[in-house]
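Give me the 3D structure for Integrase, catalytic region.
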Amino acid sequence: MSRSAFYDWLERPVKINSEEELNMYRTARQLFKRSRGSLGSRQLCKNLRRAGFNVGRYCTRSIMRKLKLVVTQRQAYKVTTKRKHSNSVADNVLNQQFNPAQVNLVWAGYVTYLRTNQGWMYLAIVMDLYSRRVVGWSISKRMTVDLVERALQMAINIREPKAGLMFHSDRSAQYTSGRFSRLLNKYKITASMSSVGACLYNAVVERFFGSLKNEWLLNVVHLTREMMKMDVEEYIRYYNHERLHTTLGDLTPINYENLQSQVSGWT
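Predicted structure for Integrase, catalytic region (267 residues):
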């Protein structure tokens, strides 16, 4: 550096951050921490705008560099469910039509595995594809029919759907069992099934599990099954109430349902 450049730098006035900028930095840190380091510049920008800050994506990138907010990279995970060939299966009635016209028309369910220091746990969820809201879930150390039954029964108790609802899943032994079929028939729910391992045919639920594992659970050591259960339930609350979804017009599932309820008048 030349002598003149050095003295020019010394005389340059120090930039003083305004109170609004400091509040924006503080909010950005809080949002990034709440997401467990999963918010990229696009989603962080949307969240900052939602919080009332007039900010663009280029500015958000600069903020992330300044605050050293680095997103953790995603990792792939494997399919865990298998079909029992003696069980009957349903046709793929849904056929990748993931955007029904209103709530309680199409639900989707799936099972995934979770690692703890006490051993594996298995999570079954039920999602309303209209709003991407998780409406039922169950977690256990065993992957049984009880697991998926409890998740569906929770969703039924909360939503009280009318006859004609469709439930989409894969063809794993839990969903093709006689017990689960009888539960569907009891509430007049139509079954739809895709092939085991065909992730594109249940892409929305697969995406939820990817977000859970790569945005929330990655690099977190769960010493006990009870800790994992509590953490998963916290993520479901975060997912339903706080996480913005591009498909929903950058709304949360709860806000999307509430908005559409006001517009259409359904309850």
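The beta strands are 106-116, 119-128, 133-140, 166-170, 190-194. Let me know if you want a second pass.
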